[in-house]
Specification:
Length: about 550
């Protein structure tokens, strides 16, 4: 077996041989228990080559632990000699790049400065197979199995070659890198878990099976994760990323990217640029990032966030949650019950089918409930809310809002501001919870207004105040009943406040149809152009000023 082999550098740690005169015992072996390597700083980037320099034990076949006769030494990557100090064996857990794990007994050694390394095994045993099965993200030293070195009390110098999985490095030109591809160091793309750096050029990477980690580098790259839980990063360029099967993590990077999560539960992110992001099947999490992005959740219960820019978000199937973020976003929940948050700026939110919850937040928003029993909240500023089919709940919140319940028996609350409550033909029995009958600006109209322009009489005319029947809805509230059966309950508005045509006119119900012409001293004018104080010609008393 060779005396030159691969090791993994764990870092400069506490000295495990704290008592130099204690012969072959690493007294502080427990002092370095813990986890080494993270997702951002994986151990597969710390593979080094050890070359033997001096061994004095066991017929010069082992590194001396007691160091009474001087230090044995080794070199790392051909560098200066490092004096060997101590070795210990640990019960340990390996975590690979795809998150899977394996339990091993790990041989860990140090030089006199605490530089600590994971060594390969003496033979091709199960532990060695685990060490080389896939690129290693981290190593957890769980407990000390032995603090006296190997069976002879030292550390054998002749060990198996190691062959830890290292990244596959592409060239700076366009390449196609699939299973079997080998780079200049003979690191290969396998059917297992791989790490691939495509580097420069417009590359195509087909990572194959296993949980793979792929970095596109510069250029317009196409990446396929295929099977396994993969992580694909487009980096620079206009990239196409396809996760395939497994729960994948895909990130487009800079410029305009196209990203498909594939089956299972994926995390997909467009990052910079105007990206197209598709979660596809599974319960996916999508982030648009900067730029004006398009995100589709696909099947499953998805969570989509547009981020900055004017984004378009579609939940499609499943119970989805959509966040517009900054910019003027367009959002569509799709089938089933969805939750939509508009975020900053003026957004358009459509619940589509299912019982949805829509919140406009900031900006001048338009909310469309669609089918199902929906809950709509406009948020700040002046919003427009349409409930759609079925019994919906609409809340304008702050600002001067327009609320239209649609078909079904809806509940409408304007909130702060001067609001307009609109009603559809065959809209059902609606309730307005906070109709404001006061006249703050003295214009002869109530602060809130009713818009009944869509309602008709039985002969098809637009309704006027003379077509409305006022009833007592109980609890001190008036019910307005229209010719085709629609009704509106105004909570807190007494029937006596809506008895006359003049009272209804002040609340927004016209006394004449919009196309009616009224004779004035200046000739005939549409009734919609007249205001209190204008002169009209009466039959008996000549010109008179309009009171209401």
């Amino acid at each position: 077996m060779p005396t030159s082999y691969e090791v993994i550098f764990l870092g400069q740690l506490s000295i495990i041989d704290s008592q130099a005169n204690n012969e072959e015992t690493a007294e502080n072996a427990g002092g370095i228990l813990g986890t080494y390597g993270t997702t951002g700083t994986p151990l597969f980037n710390n593979v080094r080559t050890l070359t033997a320099e001096r061994q004095t034990e066991d017929d010069n076949n082992s590194y001396d632990v007691d160091n009474f006769g001087g230090y044995d030494s080794f070199r790392i990557n051909g560098g200066a000699p490092q004096n060997f100090d101590a070795v210990a064996i640990y019960n340990a857990t390996i975590t690979y790049i795809d998150g899977t794990t394996a339990s091993i007994t790990a041989v860990v050694f140090q030089d006199v400065n605490g530089r600590t390394y994971l060594a390969p095994e003496l033979t091709a045993n199960a532990d060695q197979a685990a060490l080389t099965a896939a690129p290693i993200r981290s190593l957890q030293l769980v407990s000390v199995a032995s603090n006296t070195g190997d069976a002879a009390g030292d550390m054998a110098a002749n060990r198996i070659a190691g062959d830890f999985k290292a990244p596959v490095d592409g060239a700076e030109t366009a390449q196609t890198m699939g299973v079997g591809f080998a780079d200049g160091q003979n690191d290969r793309v396998t059917t297992g878990a791989d790490v691939v750096y495509a580097n420069g050029g417009n590359d195509t990477v087909v990572a194959g099976g296993g949980g793979d980690l792929v970095y596109g580098g510069t250029g317009d790259d196409t990446q396929h994760g295929d099977d396994g839980n993969d992580a694909l990063f487009g980096d620079q360029g206009q990239d196409w990323l396809f996760g395939g099967t497994g729960s994948d993590t895909l990130s487009g990077g800079t410029e305009n990217d196209l990203i498909y999560g594939g089956s299972d539960n994926d995390t997909v992110s467009g990052d910079d640029g105007n990206d197209m992001v598709y979660g596809d099947a599974g319960n996916d999490t999508g982030f648009g990032g900067a730029g004006s992005d398009t995100l589709y959740g696909g099947d499953g219960n998805d969570s989509l966030s547009g981020g900055a820019g004017n984004d378009s978000l579609g939940g499609d199937g499943g119970d989805d949650t959509l966040f517009g973020g900054d910019g003027s976003d367009t959002m569509s929940g799709g089938t089933e019950g969805d939750i939509l948050f508009g975020g900053a700026d003026g957004d358009t939110l459509s619940g589509d089918a299912g019982d949805d919850s829509l919140s406009g937040d900031a900006g001048h928003d338009t909310l469309l409930g669609g089918m199902g029993q929906d809950r709509l909240a406009g948020g700040t500023e002046d919003d427009t809310l349409f409930g759609g089919a079925d019994a919906d709940t609409l809340w304008g919140d702050a600002g001067n809002d327009r609320l239209v319940g649609g078909s079904g028996s809806d509940t409408l609350t304007g909130g702060a501001g001067d609001d307009v409550f609109g009603f559809d033909r065959a809209g059902g029995a609606d309730t307005v919870t906070d109709f404001d009958m006061s006249d703050a600006d003295g214009d002869g109209r109530t602060n809130d207004q009713l818009d009944v322009s869509a309602l008709r009489t039985l002969d098809g005319r637009p309704v006027t105040a003379y077509d409305v029947v006022v009833q007592d809805a109980g609890g001190g509230s008036a019910r307005l009943v229209f010719p085709e059966g629609e009704s509106i309950v105004l909570l807190g508005v007494a029937p006596s406040q809506m008895t006359s045509a003049a009272q209804m006119f002040r609340a927004g119900i016209p006394c004449f149809t919009p196309d009616t012409l009224i004779l004035t001293p200046q000739g005939q004018r549409p009734v919609t152009q007249l205001r209190p104080g204008d002169l009209v010609v009466t039959r008996d008393d000549g010109p008179q000023r309009i009171v209401w």
